[in-house]
TrEMBL record:
Sequence ranges assigned to domain GGDEF in this UniProt record: 190-324
Leading EC class: transferase
Keywords: Nucleotidyltransferase, Transferase
Protein name in UniProt: Diguanylate cyclase
Source superkingdom: Bacteria
Entry EC no(s): 2.7.7.65
Entry-linked InterPro entries: DGC-Regulatory_Protein (IPR052163), GGDEF_dom (IPR000160), HNOB_dom_associated_sf (IPR042463), Nucleotide_cyclase (IPR029787), Rev_trsase/Diguanyl_cyclase (IPR043128)
Alphabetical list of Pfam families matching this protein: GGDEF
Organism the protein comes from: Sulfitobacter sediminis
Molecular function (Gene Ontology), one example: diguanylate cyclase activity
Length: 344
């Protein structure tokens, strides 16, 4: 069988084969290998010049030419993209001293198809490499689809969690989110402060101008509180006109009072609504957790309520920082039910 003819059967059966002479010179190259050398045919060049032999070492090949038995190869293109190939050397069987090297891409087939723009026509009809390539492509497509689905599910989960922790009217955190934050800070024995804020005269707005005006006021109040606090602070709406601000890492009382006073001053400014000025103010009860064993969340919020009542009792539009004496005074003069009614 003529191995060097233009219509050699090996070009069809083994499109990635080479024919070498006894010195390793390439006498013939299959069509697929020709395609891998777009800058010039490998024919007439030395095998070792084009391919780096990984196993066995290059000198072993030189000794094996001409070969009398098959010799397995692991090689790599010396030029970019340094594609890895597997092969086998066999004698030509015609006594010419020639060697046939049949090559394959192995696990490098996916990269090779991309790097050399190979198609079905570049492989033998019986080569399972194409079927493997189809399987790889199908698996890749399935994994990409799965990744996209998982990403959509993750975004949906995040959106659901965000909705569960968000007040729909104002966009602030809700009571559930507040409790999560407070429990985390208490467990960490952190230094932080909590402001319970109740809007003064809000019920009058709802009763005289309607719920649309009330909603507008609440949304404006929420925006103001966010503007007057830091990004690390947590602002939550926990009831109709009740808000809570959590300030992590508060180190001195002066800063705490400044934040409260800024909120009070801003909320005393009239809020326009359809040609009418809505006038409210804010009373604040503040608890500052410093060192030692922190109280439970329930006791912490109860202390903030006591300080808030003291602000209401002092004439509203003021901030009171909790002390144990405030609770003693509150318990002596008023019941919880009466206190709640007075907050309206």
């Amino acid at each position: 069988m003529n191995l060097l003819g233009h219509s050699s059967p090996l070009d069809v059966l083994c499109p990635m084969h080479l024919v070498l002479d006894a010195d390793g010179m390439i006498l013939h190259a299959g069509p697929t290998l020709q395609k891998m050398f777009p800058e010039g045919s490998p024919v007439g060049r030395n095998f070792i010049e084009l391919f780096e032999v990984k196993r066995p070492p290059a000198f072993a090949i030189a000794k094996a030419l001409p070969v009398t038995a098959e010799q397995k190869l692991h090689i790599q293109l010396r030029q970019e993209p340094h594609t890895s190939l597997r092969g086998i050397l066999v004698p030509d069987g015609e006594g010419m001293g020639h060697v046939v090297v049949n090559l394959s891409f192995g696990i490098s087939i996916v990269e090779a198809v991309r790097d050399f723009a190979l198609t079905n026509a570049d492989f033998a009809a019986t080569d399972l490499a194409i079927e493997m390539l189809y399987l790889v492509e199908a698996k890749t497509a399935a994994m990409e689809a799965s990744h996209r689905l998982n990403k959509r599910l993750e975004w949906a989960r995040i959106a659901a969690e965000e909705q569960a922790f968000t007040d729909t009217l104002t966009g602030l955190k809700n009571r559930r989110a507040l409790h999560t934050v407070l429990n985390r800070l208490i467990a960490a024995r952190a230094v932080f402060a909590v402001m319970q804020i109740d809007l003064d005269y809000f019920k009058t707005i709802n009763d005289t101008l309607g719920h649309a005006a009330g909603d507008h006021v609440l949304q404006t109040v929420a925006r103001i509180m966010v503007e007057e606090t830091l990004e690390q602070d947590v602002v939550a709406r926990v009831g109709g006109d009740e808000f809570t601000v959590v300030l992590p890492d508060v180190r001195n009382e002066e800063n705490l009072r400044k934040v409260g006073q800024r909120i009070i001053d801003r909320l005393e400014e009239p809020i326009p609504f359809e040609g009418t000025d809505c006038k409210i103010s804010a009373s604040i009860g503040t608890v500052w957790i410093q060192t030692g064993t922190p109280p439970s969340m329930e006791d912490l919020l109860s202390d903030a309520d006591v300080a808030l009542y003291a602000s209401k009792n002092a004439g509203r539009a003021t901030q009171t920082i909790y002390s144990p004496e405030l609770r003693e005074a509150a318990n002596a003069v008023i019941s919880p039910a009466t206190r709640n009614r007075d907050f309206a």
